[in-house]
Every structure is written in C-alpha cells, then in structure tokens.
Amino acid sequence: ELQVSQQNLPSNPPTIGAKPKNKLEEVKENNLERAKELVKAAQEFLDKGKYAEAKTKAKEALWKRKTELGKNHPEIAQSLNILGESYREQAKYQKALKTHQKAYEMRKILFGEK
C-alpha cells in the first residue's frame, strides 16, 4: 500500500491545465511583485516625511520595473512620479521636474494627450 506524506507534496501544486512557468517567468513575476512592495514602501516613507528612504525605494522599484517591463509602461511612470515627489520634497527641484516630465511623456506615449 502506497502512503503519501504531506511533506512530499508541493506547497502550491499547479492548476490543472495551467502551463508550467519557466524560471525566467518566475523571476520576472517575483521582481514585479517586489517592485510593488517597494512602491508601497516608498509611498509610506513619503507620507512619513522620510524622503531619502522614499527615493531609495522608488529607485529600486524603477530599476526592477524597467528591467522586466521595458521602456514604456504605466508602472514605470508610477515609479517615476514617486521618485519625482521624493526629489521635490528634498528641494531638488530640477531633478523633480525632470523626473515628473519623464513620467508625463511616458503617459502621453501610452495613453495619448487629453
């Protein structure tokens, strides 16, 4: 008689009919999930007045998103806006303006001008 123990079963078995993920897809998914967490942390730091920490988190999220999503994507524009806010709050107005302009131009490309 065959006995199966819980420890030998996968923790999250694949869904029936689902295509198994390759390693690159898993890495991309993990990076994008981490980027979401970083954006959330950056926003929380902004809200608390911890602008240098917000900048660090926003830059890391931006790098991860650019790596995984390419040149133009709404999530990249979101990261740029948060980074721009961190610069503005630190009175780095030229950097803030440049960063917000990048986000604006990206949104224009993605969604058109209204």
Largest sheet: none
Form type: globular
Strand content: under 5%
Number of helices: 4
Over the alpha carbons, how many angstroms does the gyration radius reach?
19 Å
The CA-CA distance between the termini, in Å, is 69 Å
For the secondary structure, the number of strands is 0
Broad structural category? mainly alpha
Mean pLDDT equals: 87
Task: Specify the helix fraction band.
Answer: 55-70%
Order of helices and strands: HHHH
Low-confidence stretches: 1-8
What does this protein look like?
There is one protein chain. The protein is an all-alpha fold. The protein is 69% helix and 0% strand. It has helices at 23-47, 51-69, 74-89, 93-111. The longest helix is centred in the first third of the chain and has 25 residues, at 23-47. Mean pLDDT is 87; it is low at 1-8.
List keywords for this structure.
4 helices; globular; 114 residues
Short description:
With 114 residues, the protein is an all-alpha fold. The chain has helices at 23-47, 51-69, 74-89, 93-111.
What topology emerges from the helices and strands here?
Blueprint: H1 23-47, H2 51-69, H3 74-89, H4 93-111
Helix pairs in contact: 1-2, 1-3, 2-3, 3-4
